[in-house]
Amino acid sequence: MNSIRSITVYVLCAVAENHVKIVGGYECEPHSQPWMAFLKASFHQCGGFLINQNWIMSAAHCYDTRIEVHLGKHNIAVDESSEQSIPSERVIHHPYLTDIMLIKLSKPATLNKFVKPVDLPKSCAPPDTMCRVSGWGITMNETVDSDKLQCLNLSIISDRDCNESYPDLITGDSGGPMVCDGEIQGIVSAGGRCAAKDQPGIFTKVGR
């Protein structure tokens, strides 16, 4: 699959279970999020996700002219036999929206049990839908190894509740996926105070 169908992008809010933010997540079961991509740019790192063999989606504030994409990763501190490292061929900002980008891989990813694309959404998930976010961001917990992929369960909140709050995201998780019922619904976007109680995370909404 080489084409990318039309995508509409807006803002989406979600709040963690039991008011625990991204720092309160848990280690994902290894390779349970096979679409996850670790992105290494010149001076920063981000998350992203595979949407087909040739394309990665991430947040535009993770932009660089050249990005090394690592697929099939769980522990980013070690080389893994499941890993595929593929440099970018093109990195494209969305021309009108602020925080979404596409990365064209220089060669197609090899799909297997460790590397699989996430499904694009058939519709937008309603409030109270439970979703999962994953990333290698800061955990703020010395007992948690953030080199290993972390997961967090979130519930989508209404636009009204979102407008009455402000964002709460963690460095390093930018660009990562929010997956609901097996479909990508959001991209980890910019944030405000880190891990403040009762403040939802802000995501770029991905919908048809």
Number of DSSP-assigned strands: 13
By oligomeric state, this entry counts as: single chain
CATH topology of the largest domain: Thrombin, subunit H
Whole-angstrom Rg:
16 Å
CATH superfamily of the largest domain: Trypsin-like serine proteases
Q: Which class best fits the helix and strand makeup?
A: mainly beta
How much helical structure, as a percent, in the residues?
Answer: under 10%
> In terms of per-residue confidence, which ranges show pLDDT below 50 for 5 or more consecutive residues?
1-10, 17-22, 166-171, 191-196
- Largest sheet strand order: 1-10-9-11-12-13
GO molecular function: serine-type endopeptidase activity
Protein name: Peptidase S1 domain-containing protein
Domain Peptidase S1: 22-208
Organism: Sinocyclocheilus anshuiensis
Structure description:
- One of its GO terms (molecular function) is serine-type endopeptidase activity.
- Pfam families: Trypsin (PF00089).
- Keywords: Disulfide bond.
- This is Peptidase S1 domain-containing protein.
- It comes from Sinocyclocheilus anshuiensis.
- This protein is 2% helix and 37% strand.
- It folds into 2 domains: 113 residues, Trypsin-like serine proteases (Thrombin, subunit H); 70 residues, Beta Barrel (Thrombin, subunit H).
- The chain has a 6-stranded antiparallel β-barrel with strand order 1-10-9-11-12-13.
- The chain is globular, with a radius of gyration of 16 Å.
- The N terminus is likely disordered.
- A hairpin with a 7-residue loop joins strand 7 and strand 8.
- The longest helix is centred in the C-terminal third of the chain and has 5 residues.
- The chain has 208 residues and is mainly beta.
- The chain contains 1 helix and 13 strands; from the N terminus they run ββββββββββαβββ.
